[in-house]
UniProtKB/TrEMBL annotation:
Top-rank taxon: Bacteria
SUPFAM superfamilies to which the protein is assigned, alphabetical: Dehydroquinate synthase-like
Keyword check for Ribosomal protein: no
Keyword Glycosyltransferase appears in the UniProt entry: no
GO cellular component annotations of the record: cytosol
Domain Alcohol dehydrogenase iron-type/glycerol dehydrogenase GldA: 9-177
Protein name: NADH-dependent alcohol dehydrogenase
Gene3D superfamilies: 3.40.50.1970, Dehydroquinate synthase-like - alpha domain
Pfam family, one: Fe-ADH
One term of GO molecular function: methylglyoxal reductase (NADPH) (acetol producing) activity
Fe-containing alcohol dehydrogenase-like C-terminal domain location: 188-385
Length: 388
């Protein structure tokens, strides 16, 4: 295990009915709020009306930025920054999934910055301060509700980039699993795949002596596997929705499950290049790419893949070589994604080989990616080719 420091400042308020606390929680941090939300789900469910009235009852002035896109766009973030400056907004409340929360973080970092907020995504500038943000999460997936990361797409240039900062952790996040009852089937699936993928990025590591972290990872994977089909069969399955939501938050909250371990993140890097051009849902892209990444890299550390196969999927190792066991675990992953309804090929999104070269090039723009196996451009391209 490597040396580490760990801080996570986000106040989590979990449980049915907790959205009722949004007024008091927000009023602790700000008086003039930008309410950021997506394309309509919060209006349909009544969460929008309820939130606005709770904020007003708490004496908070509300301005709004609706229509955050899934895969949120830089142009929309810039609109939010302009509103905050014009209206002297002092707090941002994101009500939605990862896209809404990520947009809120980018706005929060952009408001006090003199330059272009995109600088934070290209590494040209480092965030030194940000407006405080809070969230009401409506979709179990990204972990953005308890981490400092934001992922935004510069659509004009087909670039999707991330930043991570200690200044953009939400002050609070309200996690009411009943708010996810209305998440449609495809986004429930995409969310589950994203949660599992966050765990994979941390679990498949070359760092030695991390048994506790590995078991944290395995327990999240097993919890998602046990609960997602229950939520798909019955979208109002309270326990399943609660377990998925907490799994999502724990899977990517500043690295708690993998402290002291080298992380990989190559598959995320590759998926972001696909989304940047084709605007596909993040989890759907990961369902295609991750099993192919696994096939491509598993020989780097076969014992971790054997452990994964046996502990997570219950593969019986008797009479099999390590290679056979590892491949059985990878196939079980693919089969599971397919069984819950995730796509398995880029062709399912009508993506062909035309832009593989550009995607591979962009993925390694700052050098080789990944730590489990360092991937150069030709490796990324090979994984994309396996994914066609
Ligand atoms: O826009 P609305 O109408 O709200 O609809 C959304 C959207 O269409 C819908 N939805 C959300 N909650 C709902 C609901 N529909 C009905 N009932 C509800 N309760 O779901 C759709 C997808 O939402 P989105 O926020 O895009 O999904 P997700 O949470 O998966 O976020 C994806 C974005 O997060 C980034 C991804 O790259 C992508 O841009 N990521 C952010 C990370 C982070 N900040 O740490 C890490 C991730 O790896 C990821 O890269
Ligand atoms: Zn992800």
């Amino acid at each position: 295990m490597n040396s580490f420091q760990f801080v996570n400042p986000t106040h989590i308020v979990f449980g049915e009915g907790t959205a009722n606390q949004v007024g008091q929680l927000t009023a602790k941090h700000g008086k003039t709020v930008l309410l950021v939300y997506g394309s309509g789900s919060v209006k349909k469910t009544g969460l929008y009306d309820k939130t606005v009235s709770l904020l007003q009852d708490a004496g908070v002035t509300v301005h709004e930025l609706p229509n955050i896109e899934p895969n949120p766009r830089l142009s929309t973030v810039n609109k939010g920054i302009a509103i905050c400056r014009e209206q002297s907004v002092d707090f941002i409340l994101a009500v939605g999934g990862g896209s809404v929360i990520d947009a809120a973080k980018a706005i929060a970092a952009g408001v006090p910055y003199d330059g272009d907020v995109w600088d934070f995504f290209t590494g040209k500038a480092v965030i030194e301060k940000a407006l405080p943000i809070g969230t009401i999460l409506t979709l179990a997936a990204t972990g953005s509700e308890m981490n400092g990361s934001s992922v935004v797409t510069n659509w004009e240039e087909n670039l999707k980039r991330a930043f991570g900062s200690s200044h953009t952790y939400p002050k609070f996040s309200i996690l009411d699993p009943t708010l996810t009852y209305t998440v449609p089937r495809n986004h429930t699936v995409n969310g589950a795949v994203d949660i599992m993928s966050h765990v994979f990025e941390q679990y498949f590591s070359l760092t030695e002596n991390t048994p506790l972290q590995e078991r944290f990872c395995e327990s999240i994977l097993q919890t998602v596997i046990e609960n997602v089909e229950l939520a798909l069969e019955n979208p109002e399955h309270a326990a399943a929705r609660a377990n998925l939501m907490w799994s999502g938050t724990m899977a990517l909250n500043g690295g708690m499950i993998s402290v002291g371990m080298a992380n990989d993140w190559a598959s995320h890097g590759i998926e972001h290049e696909v989304s940047a051009i084709y605007d596909i849902p993040h989890g759907a892209g990961l369902a295609v790419i991750f099993p192919n990444w696994m096939k491509y890299v598993h020989e780097e550390r076969i014992d971790r893949f054997v452990q994964y196969a046996t502990r997570v999927w219950g593969v019986n190792p008797a009479g099999k070589s390590d290679q056979e066991i590892a491949l059985e675990g990878i196939q079980a992953t693919r089969d599971f994604f397919t069984r819950i309804g995730a796509e398995s090929r880029l062709a399912d999104f009508e993506i062909g080989s035309e832009k593989l070269d550009r995607m591979a090039e962009e993925a390694v723009r700052y050098g080789a990616i990944g730590s489990f196996k360092r991937l150069e451009k030709q490796d990324v391209k090979a994984i994309l080719e396996l994914s066609l």
